[in-house]
Amino acid sequence: MSDFQNPVAGFGVTFKAMFKKRLTEQYPEEKKPTAPRFHGRHQLNRHPDGLEKCVGCELCAWACPADAIYVEGADNTDEERYSPGERYGRVYQINYLRCILCGLCVEACPTRALTMTNEYELADRTRESLIYTKEELLAGLEEGMVDSPHAIFPGMTEKDYYSGLVSEAAPGTERQVAVSKGERPDEERAGTPETPAPTAERPAGTGVEA
Ligand code: SF4
Ligand code: SF4
């Protein structure tokens, strides 16, 4: 090819591309749905009555190649029950600065407590805000659920929950007082001086154990 033909051949590539269908996506104005099995933000699931599926076993944390998960388990009591069995996840954090969204933690979870959603917008401005806490990861309440902690469905065992025998909260189920989280029964609160309202901002250092 002559010295004259070389640039013409180069422009030929440009001209061909000009008439091809454009692939530019107008993100974030237009958000395209992801593939159904896209690995996005995690979710901690609940049983159909609202109790939590996580048993605080830490298997997800051990399976994580990026050391992005921090779990602390604790014992349920009859007065403060978060899951049907003996243990529950008292502290649960995922550090999205480390997570590579590989899904190995989901594979390791024995109770299907941990799954992944299609949510991919995980950017933020501070390190603390990218360490998601249990409260942020816990699934919302659906019809028939009562928020944890609350009593186990009468007459049911933990095994019955996993056999699908519980489909909603028992009639009259009420949320228990989360004493371990600093909540107090109403009767104790009455008559005590008002405590200052918590500030909206997360205190520095919160949730950085992961
Ligand atoms: S998706 Fe992968 S990297 Fe992210 S928390 Fe789970 S195991 Fe760790
Ligand atoms: S999410 Fe699953 S694997 Fe992780 S601590 Fe909870 S029950 Fe165990």
Describe the structure.
It is found in: Cell membrane. The protein has helices at 5-18, 59-63, 104-108, 134-137, 158-162, 186-189; strands at 42-44, 69-75, 87-95, 114-116, 131-132. With 210 residues, it is an alpha+beta fold. The protein has a domain at 39-178: Alpha-Beta Plaits. The protein has a three-stranded antiparallel beta sheet with strand order 2-3-5. The protein has a two-stranded antiparallel sheet with strand order 1-4. The structure holds iron/sulfur cluster (2 copies). One iron/sulfur cluster is lined by residues 54-60, 71, 89, 108-109, 111, 113-114. Residues 63-64, 66, 68-69, 94, 99-105 line the site of one iron/sulfur cluster.
Q: What structural category arises from helix and sheet content? A: alpha+beta
Average pLDDT metric: 88
Enumerate the spans where pLDDT stays under 50 for 5 or more consecutive residues: 191-210
Q: Give the CATH level 1 class of the domain at 39-178.
A: Alpha Beta
What shape does the CA trace take?
Answer: elongated
Can you tell me the CATH topology of the domain at 39-178?
Alpha-Beta Plaits
Round the Cα radius of gyration to an integer and report it. Answer: 25 Å
Count of distinct strands? 5
Report on the biggest sheet: 3 strands, antiparallel
The spatial strand order of the largest sheet comes to 2-3-5
Helix and strand pattern: HEHEEHEEHHH
